[in-house]
Amino acid sequence: MPATVTSRVIGLDASALFDRVTALANHERLIPLTRICAPARRPRVGDRVVATSAGLLRDVMLLTHYERPDGVANRGSAVAPVGRAVYRKLGPVLLGTAEIVVTALGPATARVDWTEDVRLVAPWRPAEAIVSPLLGLMTARALRLLAEATERD
User: Measured between alpha carbons, how far is 67 from 28 in angstroms, rounded to an integer?
Assistant: First the structure.
C-alpha cells in the first residue's frame, strides 16, 4: 500500500505549530470518532499511544523519534528549522509508521507534512485498497481543522 502524504502551510511559527500538531490530545478534535490515550504532557521518545476510532479500531503506537524545530526561520538563513515526530504502529490491525514533519518557512509560517505509511495485518489485508484514501482524507481534514483553529486564535 502506498504511503499517504498530506501537507499544509499554516500561519504559525514552526515550534508552536509542531507543539500543536504533536499534542495528541488535540487529535480527538481533529480526527472524527477517535479517542486518544496518551500522556498529558509534551511527548517523549518511548511514549505509548493508543488511538481508538469508532470504538472499534485500536491503533497502538510507540513514539520512536521526537525532535522539536530549533530557532526561527530567517530570510537570510539557508537552513530552515525542522521538527519531526515518528510513531511506529504496533497493531493490532495497523502496522507501519506515522510521521509528522514541521518545516519553518518564515518567522510566522510553517509547513506540516503528515505521512501515514501503514499496512494491515492478516486477515484485514484485502481492505488495504480503501485504507490509503481514508488516511489521506483523515489527515487532510485534521490539518484543515488545525489551520482553521490557528486562524481563530
Answer: 22
- Residues with Cβ within 8 Å of 130's Cβ and at least 6 positions away in sequence, in order, are none
Q: Provide the pLDDT confidence category of residue 117 given band limits of 50, 70 and 90.
A: very high
Distance CA 30, CA 39 (A): 18
Backbone angles phi, psi at 93, to 5 degrees: -110, -40
- Closest Cα partner for 89 from 43, 114, 121? 121
The proportion of the chain whose per-residue pLDDT surpasses 70, expressed as a percent, equals 93
Residue 42 has pLDDT above 80, yes or no: yes
Strand runs (DSSP E) across 76-127, as ranges? 82-92, 94-106, 109-120
